[in-house]
Amino acid sequence: MANRNLKQVRIERTFTPKSGADMVSPPQQQMMTPGKGMKRSLEVSEGDPSLMPPKMEEREEERGVTIDIKSFLKPGEKSYTQRCRLFVGNLPTDITENEFKKLFDKYGEPSEVFINRDRGFGFIRLESRTLAEIAKAELDGMVMKSRPLRIRFATHGAALTVKNLSHVISNELLEEAFSMFGPVERAVVIVDDRGRATGKGFVEFAAKPPARKALERCSDGAFLLTT
């Protein structure tokens, strides 16, 4: 059911392998008619990457954890991404913004707080994915004013799924290729249990406009990744 509204786009990729060991240099993106070389047709669609998620981080199961915020900021980790955004359902209709924020006080300062009192739900964005995982584990099911809270990770609204990737494409190459459309929060080539590429991946943009731009450009012509 979740795939019903996905918008499919076909893009062409040209890759000319070098002799000897495959050496991959940073890709160059072009909008042009495919030329000589090996052609690989990629399928890019707009949708929730949770339909084909990578292995999730080990979740924190214990409650009552004392949290040192700084210890969860990994070197080079991007903060306040959409992967750190939580959906909070079954909220009391009379909850205030201060009460909502107080629920998440121990998990650091949020960058986004939204409440829909009429429908009893809200969103909050924390600094890191790890903090969001812990908050979800601790607060999901907690009773607030006789109502058990329902906490889930929010659907990523600026993600593209990519299929038929070459086995030589890495996370870094995939991110660099799509960065021409705007800031990319994360790009992942999905692998199997043995670490072998499955030919699928996804790209998560920081906002919807770059994601829409990528779809539009790929719809207008071929999107080539060349080495």
From TrEMBL:
InterPro entries named in the record: Nucleotide-bd_a/b_plait_sf, RBD_domain_sf, RRM_dom
Region of interest (Disordered), residue spans: 13-63
Main localization category: nucleus
All copies of domain RRM, residue ranges: 84-156, 158-227
Nuclease in keyword set: no
Stored Gene3D superfamilies: 3.30.70.330
SUPFAM superfamilies (alphabetical): RNA-binding domain, RBD
One GO location term (cellular component): nuclear speck
Superkingdom of source: Eukaryota
Keywords noted in UniProt: Coiled coil, Nucleus, Phosphoprotein, Repeat, RNA-binding
Subcellular location per the Swiss-Prot or TrEMBL entry: Nucleus speckle
GO molecular function, one term: RNA binding
Protein's name in the database: RRM domain-containing protein
Species in which this protein is naturally found: Aquarana catesbeiana
